[in-house]
Structures are given as C-alpha cells and as structure tokens.
Amino acid sequence: MSSGFIRESAAVLVKDIRSEIRTRYAWGSAILFSISALFSIGILLGPYSLDPTMAASLLWALIFFSSMAGLSRSFVKEEEAGTAEILRASAANGPLFFGKALFSATTLISIEIVLVPLFLIIMGVEVSDPGSFLLIISLGSAGLCVGTTITGAIVARTSAKGLLFTALSFPILVPDLLLSMAGTRAAIEGEGIRGMGLEVFALSLYIVAIFSVSYPLFGFVWEG
Amino acid sequence: MAKSYGDRHVFKGISFHIGHGESLAVVGPNGSGKTTLLKIIAGLLPPTNGEVYIRLEGRPLDRFELRRRMGIVLSERSLYEELTALENISFFTKVKGFRSSRDYLMGVLRMVGLEEVSSLLVSEMSSGMKQRLKIAVAIAHDPGLLILDEPTVNLDPEGLRILKDIMELQKGRGVLVMATADPREGKMCEHVIRLHP
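Predict the joint structure of the above. Result:
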C-alpha cells in the first residue's frame, strides 16, 4: 500500500467524518436506535438476568441492527446529494473503498462506545475476560464494516435502499455474527483466548475472505 | 461513437480528434446528448458503439490515470454542501492524488474570486458562487483535459470573464471540451460539434 493510497483513503475518511459531524446523518440515527432498542429490551426483561449465551446473542443482534441504521448511509448519501458522479470522476476505486470502510469502522466504533458499556450495565452482564471481549468485539466489528461497505455500494443506486441493505447484508454477515456471538459468550464466561481460539481464527479468516472478494468487486459495483 | 438507451438513439456517427492546445465545443439544445457525450469522454459512461482514445505523450491513458489528468465541471450538483469552499477544493485535489498547500489552493480560489468566502459552507453560497467553485475544483490540479458541461450557467459578467480567462489558459496547456446550448458560446472553441435531438 503506497503513501499516495493512504493519503487518498485518509482524504475520503476525513471528508466523511467532517461531513458527519456537521450533518449527523448516520451516527445520530444509529446511536439513537441502539439506545432506544437497548432500553426497550431492558424494560421488557425487567428483573430477569441473562445467561452468557443470551447476553452475547442479544448484544450482537443490537450491534447488527444499529449498524444497519448507520452503515448504509456512506454511499447512499453520495447518490442522494448528487456527488457520486464527481466522486467517480475524481477518486480511484481502491482508496475510495478503503476510506469508506474506515468511515464505517468509525461509525461502528461510535455506536459501540455508547452501546456496549450501556448494555453491560443495564443487562447486568459481568465480563470475566475483558481483553478477549474487546478482541472479539473488534474482530466481529471489522467483519461487519467490510461486509457492509460493499453492500452499501450495491444498494446506493437502488430505490429501496434501507430494505435491500439489510436483506443483502444479513446473509453475508451471518458467519460473522455467529462467530462473534460464540466468541463473546466465551469471553463473558472467562474461557480466555484459548477457549475462543477457533472463533478468533475463523473470524480473522472471514475478514480476509470478505475483503478479498469485496475489494476487486467494488470497481464493478461502483462504476456500474 | 454512438449512444443509445434501448431503442432510443441519443446520438450516432460521431467521430472527432482534438490535439494538444485545441478546444472543442459540443453545441445543441436540451436533450440532444451533450452531457452524455461529455460523460463518455470522461469515462463516466460507456458508448454503445465506438471508443474514446485519450493519449498523453503518445501513450494511451487508462481510466485511473485519466481521473488524475482530467478536470470536470458537471451540470448537476457536484459539491459537498456541508463542507466549506476550501475543504471541497482540498478534498478533490487530494483524492486525485495531488498534494497542494493551503496557499496554493487559496490562490486557485482567488483566481475565481472566492478567496474571501473560502471558509463559507457551500450550502450558504449563491448559485453563481457554487458554479465558480466547481470551476476552481476542476482546474486546481492543472488538468491536461478540462471538460466543462454548461459552465456559464448562473455566472454573472465577472464570472463569465473569469471563465473565459481560464478557458484561454487551458487551451495553452492541454485540451478543452465544453458543452453549451448557446451557439455563440460555442464560438469560443476552434472545433464545434452540433448535436440535434
């Protein structure tokens, strides 16, 4: 990866962050959704406590649906604002894909910074191995970001963007979600890195695989 | 070249050659295919038949190099409304792979008369100012090929004078292609293609 590639990717990322801070286009809706969903579930559960499997599943379900509310917006916004054409005429595909994936990561981090601690507090979940917990959250989120970057580009030119984004993303992200849930359960129970070795390995493999498919595919999707 | 959408022909039988230092005007009424032809030249649309060859120093340019060497003013909205004038021009210069200092970019904004409003959000700008900014974005990296789609839209007399200066400058350093509905504006270029709906 050349320094020019990194500079161009950084330009896309900085532009999107700057734009997001001024418009609150993606982050606001995603964070609001995640908080309201979390509180609704917390109220419904009342005094009942969650076992580690249920807690891990619920956490990833919340992360998945919150990300669906925010991660599609990056490319959709370019099409809606009328800037997609000039971006196609200006930016090379590689740095654009990378910059948009990094912006998705920033969006997801901003959701998780709010959602994950609140989830642990409200649901009364104690994490026995915080290091492994953070590792599995990071890996699962990386898979989500790469997977949703390509689906975001696919749906940007369609009419039923929101519906299609979730419908297309879900089958692509099922392996990521299942592995992340299993790894998160192991981290909550304190099985340590050895107990979740398979999940960490499989998630790393999944990220490499989804990136290897998405990256070359992006040019065809974006330029149509 | 020819372009059609299904059974509808936008244009057909177009063939032209423009050399370094030359300019071409594509003139025609609304719906005649001017923008389509410009987008095909820019590599944003594929032609139905035919090909576009763009050469630099005798060798063909691929799409990726063309993006770096080309400046384009599109007729549709093509600026980030939530960014300032300086942020817009800086972003587009960077994604094309160029490193430009703030002073240089301010100089480009000065050239189009926008230096004083460099920190103004595009959403707060008038239509004429936005058109000037589009032109600044297109020329900031000294493009070898400058494509202008209806560049005079929304420009006041001062903006028109600036545009003419930029067009003359471009003729000296590369190739200029513009589209216009006004045959009088077409006379600013040596070569003219007339399209009919």
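Residues 3-223 of chain A form one domain.
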